[in-house]
Structures are given as structure tokens and as C-alpha cells.
Amino acid sequence: MSINQNTAGSIVVTPVCDAIGADVICGDVKKMTPTVFHQLQQAFHQYLVIRIRGQQLNIEQLLNFGRWFGTLSRGAPVHIGQKPRDEQYPELAIISNVIENGLAIGGLGDGEAVWHTDSSFNDIPPSLSVLYSVEIPPAGGDTGFANMYTALDALPKALRNEIGGRTIKHDKRFTSGGQLRPGFQADQDLQDSPGPSHPIIRKHPDTGRDALYLGRRPCAYVNGLSLTDSEALLDTLWSYATREEFTWHHQWRLGDILIWDNRCTMHRRDAIDPQTRRIMHRTQCHGTAVISGM
Ligand SMILES: [Fe+2]
To answer: What distance in angstroms lies between residue 115's CA and the mean position of ligand 1's atoms?
Structure first.
């Protein structure tokens, strides 16, 4: 696939499967134009995850690409044992298992990252994430995506009615890799744990469509229910959300850019062989307040 197939100024969009995701050929993203970006954005809203291959971007160029989609957020907080952020690029987060001089150069390590939507433990979560592969292992670290519009549509009517108007508390304490964030306690009752509450059915501010908005399964709590009832309801919802027919797993190549919509998708990552190296650069756009759907 060449990245130079955009000479006519129009992009080529090819769905990767029925569930979610499309390959987009749009030329070198460093030369993005408003016309091309408009088409890219349309494809993004239609397919929810966009893969653009064969790019060569330094940090500044990646951040400039991300800025087409909106104002960038400050990168995720750095963890204990992690190299301090390069304040020259505050909007960059490094996702990596590489250790240099005893410090991790990025976040998430080499373990599996469970299904989640990015930073839903914030009052205003990021709208979208842009992830670019800088160094990848020969195998492992595939990223899965799940379509939360179709997961919501698949719920039986009674279940959908049951969750209408309800909210989930999105626990702040742990990363999607299971690491405790600095300043939080591991042992805490879920009903009292820190984190914002968001509607279970979320209306997408741009498309107007409703999606299931679950955050992540560990430490989630449905407000107003007993812990037992909350766990049972979450288990049922998750059994729909991660069905194979709503998902796609992407295998990384060098120079891939993946852009996903945190308002209507979830993602996960396979573990990585600790003997191999993986370095990814990520940036995210500021979101808007989470709006309840029907
Ligand atoms: Fe993530």
C-alpha cells in the first residue's frame, strides 16, 4: 500500500472488517490539507477507528497531526519508576516496555492491558487518541477495538431500559495495565472509591448516536445498586460489549497511526514479550462533558 495514492486529493477508505475500523490512504499526513482532513474526519465518524500506514513522524509532526482533530491534552501522569516527562512535549505520552538506566521510558509496561476507554476516570475524558508506532516487537502487543454503538444496539430492550438514566463510577486508582496510580489506596470499597460518574448510555456529541460507555471492568460500580447487583449488571453488559462480532484486533507495523474515538469504542492490548522492545507515541484531544443518551 503506497502512501502516495492521494494525488487527486481524495482519500481511499477500506473497512478492515464488518465490526469497526478502516484503512485510510491519505498521503503523507505531514502534508494534510483541510479538504483531505474533512474526508478523514468523515471516515473517522463512520468507522470509529482509522488506520493510516507507512508514515514517518517525529514527535512534533505527530503532535501537529493530532492538532487537526482538536486541542491536545497533557499526556497521562508519569508513574513511579518512570522517566520524567520531557516538558518540551507535554502533550506526548510514551507507551513502552523499555527500561533505560533503571527507569521505564513510558507507561503500561509489557503486560496485557484490559478492555477500556481512555481516561474515563477524568470528569472530561479525551475525545480521541492518536497512537503511532516508533518501535515494535516481532510479535505481541496487538491492539483490539470494540464498537460500543453496536454493543448498545445488541442489548435486549429490557436491559437497555434498566440502564437508561443510570451511571457508572469510573475508578481512578488503577491503570488499564493494573498498576496503582500514585497517591491512591489499593484496598478500598468500590462504593467509596474515587472517580467521576458517567452515564452508561452516552450520546456522541458529534454524531448524535448513543453508545455504551463502560470505562473498564475492574473496580467499576453502578451507582445506586448494591455491590452484588452492580457486579451482576456489569457482568451482563460486558458480555455484550466484548463479543467477537463487535471487535477487531490490529497487528502493528512500523509507521502505523491509529486514531480511535474514546466516546464510542473500547480497546485492549495483548501482552508483550519482555525480552522485546515496543515504543509507541500517543497524543489525545480534549473532550467535552459526557452527555447522557436515551
Ligand atoms: Fe488505552
So the answer is: 8
CA–CA gap between residue 25 and residue 15 (Å, rounded): 12
* C-alpha of residue 7 to centroid of ligand 1, in Å: 34
Distance 121 CA to ligand 1 centre (A): 12
Q: Are 91 and 75 in contact (CB under 8 A)?
A: yes
Which domains are present in the chain?
A: 12-292 (3.60.130.10)
Q: Which H or E run includes 269?
A: strand 265-269
Cα(260) to centroid(ligand 1), Å: 10
Residuewise pLDDT in 10s, the chain (294 residues): 344 444 456 899 999 999 999 999 999 999 999 999 999 999 999 999 999 999 999 999 999 999 999 999 998 777 778 888 888 999 999 999 999 999 999 888 888 889 999 999 999 999 999 999 999 999 999 999 999 999 999 999 999 999 999 999 999 998 877 888 888 888 888 988 999 999 999 999 999 999 999 999 999 999 999 999 999 999 999 999 999 999 999 999 999 999 999 999 999 999 999 999 999 999 999 999 999 998
CA distance 161 to 233: 12
CA of 201 to the centre of ligand 1 (A): 20
- Distance (angstroms) between ligand 1 centre and the Cα of 116 equals 6
Ligand 1 centroid to 267 CA: how many Å? 6
Q: How far apart are CA 280 and CA 122, in angstroms?
A: 23
The residues that bridge with 282 in the sheet, in sequence order, are 93, 131
Which amino acid, 28?
D
User: How far apart are the CA of 225 and the centre of ligand 1, in A?
Assistant: 28
